[in-house]
Queue: 3 jobs
Job 1
Amino acid sequence: MEKILLISDRDEVAKKFGDIFSKNIHDFFVLTDELMITDSVSVYPPDIIILDVDSNEIDFKTIVKRVKSIDENIILIIYSDNEFDDIFLTSYSNAFITSTMSDKMIYSTVNMNLKTKNSLEKLFNTNKDLESSLYRLNALYDTSSKFAGTLDKKELLKYMIEGMDRTLSFSLTCLLSFADKDNPELILNSLYELSDELIAAIKLRTILNYKSLGEIPYDLNEKDIKVIKHIKYPASRFTFSLFQYDNMFAPISLGDEFFGCVEIFKDSTFTPDDATCFQTIVQQVALPIKGADLYQELINTNKELEKLERLKSDFISIVSHELRTPLTSIKNSMDILSSGKCCEITPTAEKFISMAQRNIKSLSRIINDLLDLSKIEAGKMEFNFKECNIQSVIDYVKSSLSEVAKSKNINLFAEVNDLPEIKADSQRLEQVLTNLVSNAIKFTPENKNIFIRSKLMNSKAIPKNPIFEDELNKLEGDYIVVTVEDEGIGIAESNLRKAFDKFAQIENSLSRKVGGTGLGLPIAKQLLEAHKGTIWCDSTLDKGSKFYFALPVTKVAQLSR
Amino acid sequence: MKKILIVDDEQDIVESLKFMLEASDYSCYCAYNGEDGLKMAKEILPDLMILDVMMPKINGYKISRLLKYDNKYKDIPILMITARSQEEDKKIGEETGADEYITKPFDLDDVVKTVDKYLKK
């Protein structure tokens, strides 16, 4: 029923309006006293107030100010016998009626204003609902973006509680967390202090809740639960009546994975919207927790792998060192025997001694290769970068291998070129070139040729080989390109790349026959990469192979580490 | 006859070094651990020492450092035997003051040549 208040001290006016507003539809009442009016507005607010401004002894200005200060949306209609021109009162009024108007007219004016007021009120309420929904939505959005920002499980659960605080404003949340599976925690976020007895009761209740979930993933013993409490206002205390509060409960799980459960208490009733919001947050946190779990697993696996990798490197390094000592003794003994200083050596004995010596040499080369590789992989290889001339490297390798080549009747040619100096570790370059040339000698039949060439080239002029596209595309600027070309058995195209892989021996039987670990090329590749250079190869089966390596001329400054 | 002190816990290696060096007319003294090596170095004042790096308790580096920082012994040339590669050891060697590095497996002839370089001027 709409409430209409008339403020008037004129009886005839009171009677007139009393006739207009029927008792059944409207609650019509008349007041004159200022105090009564303000009380009525604050306790029993009317929908409309009609001001009889022609009253005899009423101070309307004061009343209007009072009324508006209590409810600024209240509707005021001015009633007057004449034209009315008080600016103050008109400025606060919504409508204006006069005694000259018919009753019907007055009735409809008031009614229209009533309707307007009702519509406005509805709008206002809808707006308020919208605002609170929007706030909740924002809070939910914030919470889920926070979830996305961390991979720490405890942090995620903290954000979950914060999200609930913002959207549901709880009195207490009891979170049973299995973030650390072996150390379950009961995290209590409470408005007020909780006594030890109350905490014990909450603990029991939580265990019961947890066990009511049916198939429980972890055994739970009261003693094993660590309680953590966060109290907002420690000066006040909750009592056992807390358990009569409205509450909601949900497990935090994803598929078969179980991370904990949470119960929330509030001193007022939860609406269905609250329940949805609660479920949403709990469901939302499960996925990132699972993600965090997986991430942790990944980190652990990675650590394990790194450890294994290091162990492998250490192992190779230790074994190689240990192998060197007995090998030294064997070598020394053989050398002493072959020196003839301790006894006469027969030709047959000499044959076997030199067989042993040859194998000692090969074994020691294998150990050196393994050591080199383990050092490179562990990042422990040290380089001595100095200005050096590639020609002297070529000369050294040519002279040290010419004997071996000659024994196979292979002609070893080396071009002499005047090339700029580069900053490099010449010993390592000798190692690379020795490897390439001795490979060439191994795989080249008798009476054939091997050519060593060197040239200054711009990266653009280097002939492209699609198999080594990645490496070649990285080259930029001027390079010294060294090539070792043989007329040997060649390498099938499908095997070219493998030749630079660790332990990948192409045509095993042949490699066996000619000896070697198959580590020479991978080592060469790594050594050249440390020089910011690269190595690649062209080859035709039965015609021969051409190995290239490029060393930068301009990037000198970058080499000194 | 020039005196050479060989210190290495690997008896086989000591044996072969001794054989070759004696064949080149050096008189050899042997110690099989760091403590004995240091003691003997001070007693016999050798003309040259061959030291293994890896030995229990007092390793080759320690012995070298102790001798090279002592005016009485600092002129004794020291040949260091190592199973590691040279570049690794050179760094530490610079502090310990060894004169030469021989990497295992080494060539006995090379060792004799190196010894000759220091003792047959």
Note: Strands of chain B lie at 3-7, 27-31, 48-52, 78-82, 100-103.
Job 2
Amino acid sequence: MSHPELDDLLGKGWRKPAFVKNALLRWTLIVGFIAYLIAAYMTIEVDWGRVYEGLDRGWAFVLAFTSPDFISRWSDIWSGLMESIVMTVAASVVGILISIPIGLGAARNIAPLPVYVICRGIVAISRALQEIIVAILLVAIFGFGPLAGFLTLSFATIGFLSKLLAEDIEAMDKVQAEAIRASGARWTQWVNYGVQPQVMPRLVGLSMYRIDINFRESAILGLVGAGGIGATLNTAFDRYEYDTAAAILILIIGIVMALEYLSGIIRARVQ
Amino acid sequence: MPVVEHEGAQIWRRRTTGQSLVRWFGWLLGVAVFVYCWQIISESTTWFFVWDAPRIANDIWTRATPPKWDYITQLGRPIWDTLNIATLGTIIALFLAVPVAFLAARNTTPSALFIRPIALLIIVSTRSINSLIWALLLIAIIGPGVFAGVIAIAIRSIGFCAKLLYEAIEEIDHTQVEAITATGASRWQIMAYGIVPQILPAFAGIAVFRWDINIRESTVLGLVGAGGIGLQLSASLNVLAWPQVSLILIVILAAVMISEWVSAKVRGAII
Amino acid sequence: MLRLQKLTKTYKTGDQALKAIDLDVPKGQVLALIGPSGAGKSTMIRCINRLVEPTSGEVLLDGVDLVKLGSGALRKARREMGMIFQEYALVERLTVMENVLSGRLGYVGFWRSFLRRYPQSDVDEAFRLLDRVGLLHMADKRADELSGGQRQRVGICRALIQNPKLLLVDEPTASLDPKTSRQIMRLITELCQERGLAAIINIHDVALAQMFVPRVVGLRFGEIVFDGLPSGLTPDKLTEIYGEEDWEATIEKVDDDEEIEAAE
């Protein structure tokens, strides 16, 4: 049985069709990327002698994890850690409370247009500015201390939570909400009965996740003077006290793991 | 259904008396914790500065505007460095994250008892610690500069990428792997034909997503001396050159928005 | 050619999926394996090429016991057995051609397969097979762009390019419409005749099995309860395999007993 199509193909090689069909574009992309990598590599000045010297210190740091020193700076570690936790708790509470109305306002399907635009604006600003930059500005304005850290974390929480909450509300099941509205409920009642039950599990889950992030972030705010464990950690590095630094890092990792575990349990119970 | 007898009539309640008591106690405890946290923050705050804050904010604003536009000529190199830190850091992280993810996924790990916990420990510890802290540590070890920034971003990203990737690996369709196994393929061939094609889209998505985050993070690494535009920010802050600070903040905002746009475009093209 | 001796599979949960199965499949014979779901059909097929490890017993392929083979020798033995799956099990993000060529993985080294540089003879054979099942024009399409029947044809090509002696076919028509099901069954049996292949076809559709296959084996609770010509599948035999009547009888009997007790 002869088949013209088949006879054409037999004996010819076969190549996998390329991901980018246009050959010129494909080669431009490949060559451009390699050229970029070379250029980037060339412009990084690495002092290999310094790196080589540092290997000893790096190894000393790794060893420090086997014998972390919790004791000699315990009072510093304790006060720093407490400050971090206090900032996390206070900022999470305030941030979550504020982000609920803003989240409602930023959902197009339940908020009028002017409210929507304002709330979306707040969310956009909060998300575009990173925590550490906000912290620098707030420290400049309010002075050193945990107040600046607290305000920073609250502000960041609002951007994070309001956006996700708004997206969740926009994606909710319309029929359930309409059924409540059809019963003649007021707007507040409608939100309470028609919207809240649908988004509550996810709100709880996201809040737990944000508490986790807030704690992690609170560990670096101290670097710019906004309170928390970061200042203690910075001092430990400056003094080359790797065993104390290792102790602090172990505490941070431990608390983050505990928080993740806890949030896993809570999320499983809520959903 | 909890019901209360009141003057001979049955009244429906949402919760029993015991349940309500527990809830009230929970709320009370929550409020008490929050008030306590707030007190700690308040104690370590110099309230004089806070009352003075509007004036200071106004003062900073007048000094910072207008931004010193011609300073941008000196920002070319720092922006290039920032881009390199994010890009090279992401590439290194991806190379390291792939093996970690395969060791951590339940269906590909060689030993669920010994190797998987180690891989999970790597993921948790690199993920819990902010890139600024990694940068601090690396600067103490190998000295300040762009190189420390690249490594800091790379380490921080390993856990993030490996976690998302191993979740993708655990979700693959097992029958496709079975089919490749049945042809008599070797272990590596099963990997290349049965598993890799299934996780490739997730991998590309993760890479671009993390690159976007890394651009944000690398803009501030300079605050601790790890290269990039953050160095200029920190130098300008130290000499209170507010017009330069405002220009740098505008540049950072632009970089963040551009990277978000690029990553959204690329992800749209892949998926 | 293929002989199962006392093949037993007990899962960790304690479920005994196969109870000392003995079966002989001569060269070139196509047989259908029927039985209710959970009877152990799928487990039996997977025990033959050791996608599922048998608990005890022997799987003799041309006199070699597959159960005792090490991983390298097992891979060589798997090349002799092509497998066709229920949900096609194509690697969906690869092209049709790559899926067909993946049947040669047992024959080519890792780097050759990784770089998609298959020997010319394999590429030619892949084109011939695709032409035989009428999908030559689809060679460079991605597998997830194909319809169900087309995918199963690609799955058949992947199994045949292994140049096997035996086909293991697991519910080939379960996700297909009746017309496509017949076409696929016809294609499989025709190809087996053309190439002189033996095949074990798991199938739940008895009528379809009777239409195409010269020998039927009925499996129930991990035991062979029927082995013979399709014409021998009388309603009584079917009842024995699928056991619906039996089940009703049990219920009736219990009811009767209760009535008697109540009367007393």
Note: Chain B touches chain A through 55 residues (CB under 8 Å).
Job 3
Amino acid sequence: MPMVDIAGKTVEVDEEGYLVNLADWNKDVADYLAKEEKVDMSENHWEVVNFLREYYDEYQIAPAIRVLTKAIAKKLGPDKGNNKYLYELFPYGPAKQACKIAGLPKPTGCI
Amino acid sequence: MAAPQFEVPKLSDTAYTDVPKVQEGSMGHIKAFVAGQGPQEFLGYPWQLGDDWKERALDRMGQVLKKYRSVRVFLDACVHCGACTDKCHYFLGTADPNNMPVARQELMRKVYRRYFTLPGKIAPWLVGAEDLTKETLDQWFNYYHQCSECRRCSVYCPYGIDTAEITMAGREILNYVGYGQKYSNEILGKVQKIGNNLGLPGPALEDTLAGLEEDIEMDTGVAVKMPLDVQGAEILFVTPSADFFSEPHVESLIGYAKVFHAAGASWTMSSHASEAGNFGLFNGNYETMRKVAMRIRDAALQLGVKRIIVGECGHAWRVAYAFWNTLTGIGYGGDDPFSVELQKQLDPRYKQPTHICEYTWDLIQKGVLKFDKSKNDHRVVTFHDSCNVARGSRMGDEPGGQFTIPRNVIKSVVNNFHDMAPETIGESTFCCGGGGGVLTDDLMEVRVKGALPRMNAYNAVAQERGVNFLALICAICKAQFTKVVPYYGFDMSQVGGVHQLVSTAILLEQD
């Protein structure tokens, strides 16, 4: 697996650039991963990323899209609690792109 | 994960896809990610090519030929008539001649002839027999992951050669030498360790379902339940785990729950068997397929259910309908003590297993469900027959029930329905382009190009009839189309499930 240097730290990523070790994640790493994805991180992006990490801590999986939209609606207002808004933030799809920036494993399956 | 760079094929002016001018090697650069140590070892395969890879490959090929007589017959029977050449969506979309089904099979057939037939052993140059080289092995890995095992070519083959079985055999041999595909094999690990392809653990599933119950009640004012692990429930419902996780899949999950609610059914899902899909089929490994299917049998026995119903998942339904019998004895035929017990337990008045479309259609015919079709009036709907349902299974008691029953359900809940061109639906349906283990980001070029024939047919009804909704009964189709329709200029919200339509129109009585 490739190794990359981020802010003085060497971290391992997989073929698609997902972090191999969750523990390697920090804000610098997230910024680096976001840049790779051409995502310009705003506070709203961080709300999503932070929620993903909290949820993962509790459940060892990224939240289902409905769980995520509901949580974002609570934090950012009902007009933002929908799939469309999440795609605006993460154009390649919130499940995969936001997970990657949050340092979580890529969700698999028929999704 | 930046978007891959390739040219998206142009839509044609008609519903049909012109046969392209051959472009030798145009997809030769494709290579799916190779499975690493973890998933390979879990499945009992090596994870790197050893020095003896060639012996291992031929050894496995010999075993496969013995175990599956069909593979030997298919390898022997082809006369290169060419009837299949322009029937594959991947060939039509990529123009790579190796994606003609006959040529894709030939990658294996030439090796088969060399080592397993007398003329090939004696005079290989006369019969098109060739040594197995690393280059050929790489081509297997490449092109056996540019086949979605959809079996459209088989419909047109005068000998009935099932190309999917060649692809499956190819993948099994590749796995056996340590050259597996990351996407499918990671999933096969997760489903066996955690219970579903996503890796969604029980507590997360419980939390997700509780959230959905809240959503439905907020929307409708009715307390529709999403029961999990209910001992003694009458129905065990298994569905692809994507239904819990993704849009638009979850809309169908809500639809199933509303149907069960309206019917007053006693039903449950299972955290142990929280996956209907079975990627063991894609890999052509009977034992893996059996282990994955066993989880459903175990859950059925443990929960004491009387019926098993399967949600919207194409290959899951093929495995359930065509293989559960012999895999796990859930249908009939198993004579081990567990099968016998299960037979006693299951209610013989119902088809075992039952497809959710059969279940819903039956309730509609009995007048149990009430709908307001006008709630779907913003939609003009067409239906995409999923390959594994269309060509690998049946629904109901009449031939072709797998085509009529989903359409009957749709027509009961929408006012505007138009079929796509006849040569692109029913038994001749084109694959979505993402089936059979191809639904992965590293194969996006294959997926987008392979969707071309379906997109041409869809575009025609969109232009001529104003169709704006592609109704599906497969989690792979849903994920695939959501991702690829934007490449062809359509919005992803045009993609959804049959039970999403049911969910929109169904009338629930207030408690």
Note: The mean pLDDT of chain B is 95.
